[in-house]
Write a structure and sequence with these properties.
The protein has 12 helices and 9 strands. By secondary structure, it is α/β, with parallel strands linked by helices. It has a domain of 178 residues: 3-Layer(aba) Sandwich (Aspartate Aminotransferase, domain 2), CATH 3.40.640.10. It has a 7-stranded mixed sheet with strand order 1-9-8-5-4-2-3, sandwiched between helices. A two-stranded antiparallel ribbon has the order 6-7. Helix 7 links the parallel strand 4 and strand 5. The chain binds pyridoxal-5'-phosphate.
Length: 336
């Protein structure tokens, strides 16, 4: 505990000494007051909740491809519902990249199946088909093909491996939207894909996830899992709205140090009040506190934020592309 706090304090001094400072979270500083009021209206009187979520689902799916999708309160929950719909459970194995988010392995464990880790491809940082080929056993029911940092993995080879052993291929697009490989956009090679709109991801609805598929049968099976799932409780939605307001004000380069400081304070308080917390706290807080359901559907208020993010996505994708080109130009001609 003490070393953890010392480490955090060191982090803090570093943060305050470096300005402007920028990190993972791009707040919603671009939203007008009227748009924020619109989000608040959806939070306070969710009369059109189902319509708002359905519109978000239709528009998000259209960004990915010709398939359909369903919005969840986290990417992990979309993966979990997909695995369940595919009948994955005890006695089965799911191949997972070793360099992933811990909640991916947790989603597999929640179904009763065993995650089998494979090393990543050093050229893409995503799933390595050569490593997957060696990890397939008669128990393999699903392969997760992860696209890391906007870079598509060798997903065509994964498709062939999955077909060869009768497993499903699920694309992890949590960090990658709109990228293409061999002319195919991520999310359209697997039997299904999941995205995350957590605040650290390309599109930010504070928390959120998205299930996508072009397979009508699988869509119906996942819908059957999710249509009975509750959304997040009202108190949790109020907290998320507060986080949205905080990020809109502070999660920008000039004030990012202050934003980090506030987030650090929150995390220290949480840890002090709950010493049983582990590095998987994000995921297991649900079991320990019963704070919300797993899987849960995306609240309409967050879907409303998501609609603003979708409006902005074409320009944001172009901005990211331009930044990438600048980084590449700087990296070429160096030993990197
Ligand atoms: C963030 C992330 C996830 C999980 O998404 P949540 O919305 O946090 O559940 C899964 N996979 C990868 C690669 C991620 O970066």
């Amino acid at each position: 505990m003490l070393t953890a706090i010392t480490r955090k304090l060191k982090e803090l001094t570093r943060m305050l000494g470096t300005r402007p400072y920028y990190g993972f979270v791009t707040g919603h500083g671009y939203l007008t007051e009227a748009q924020v009021t619109e989000v608040r209206r959806v939070l306070e009187s969710p009369t059109q909740a189902a319509e708002t979520v359905a519109e978000y689902e239709r528009r998000f799916a259209a960004v990915v491809g010709e398939g359909r999708g369903l919005a969840t309160a986290g990417g992990r929950m979309a993966l979990f519902a997909t695995l369940r719909a595919l009948g994955v459970g005890a006695g089965h194995e799911v191949i997972v990249p070793a360099f992933t988010c811990s909640v991916v392995a947790s989603a597999v464990l929640r179904t009763g199946a065993t995650p089998v880790f494979t090393n990543v491809d050093p050229a893409t940082f995503g799933t390595d088909p050569d490593a997957v080929a060696k990890a397939i056993t008669p128990k393999t029911r699903a392969i997760i093909g992860q696209h890391s940092f906007g870079i598509p993995c060798r997903v065509g080879e994964l498709r062939a491996l999955a077909d060869g052993c009768g497993a499903a291929l699920i694309e992890d697009c949590a960090l990658t939207v709109s990228s293409t490989r061999d002319g195919v956009a991520v999310g359209n090679t697997g039997d299904a894909a999941f995205f995350s709109t957590d605040h650290s991801k390309p599109m930010n609805t504070v928390v959120g996830g998205f299930f996508y598929t072009r397979d009508a049968g699988l869509y119906d099976a996942v819908a059957a899992q999710l249509n009975n799932a509750p959304t997040l409780p009202e108190a949790q939605q109020q907290r998320l709205f507060g986080q949205f307001l905080l990020e809109r004000r502070l999660a920008r380069p000039a004030s990012y140090g202050l934003y980090q400081l506030i987030m650090l304070g929150k995390s220290v308080l949480r840890r002090l009040s709950d010493p049983g917390m582990t590095f998987l706290d994000d995921d297991y807080v649900v079991e320990r506190t019963g704070a919300y359901a797993y899987p849960a559907r995306l609240p309409a208020m967050l879907a409303r934020i998501g609609l603003f993010e979708l409006d902005r996505w074409p320009a944001e994708a172009a901005r990211r592309e331009a930044l990438l080109q600048r980084y590449l130009a700087a990296a070429y001609g160096t030993p990197l």
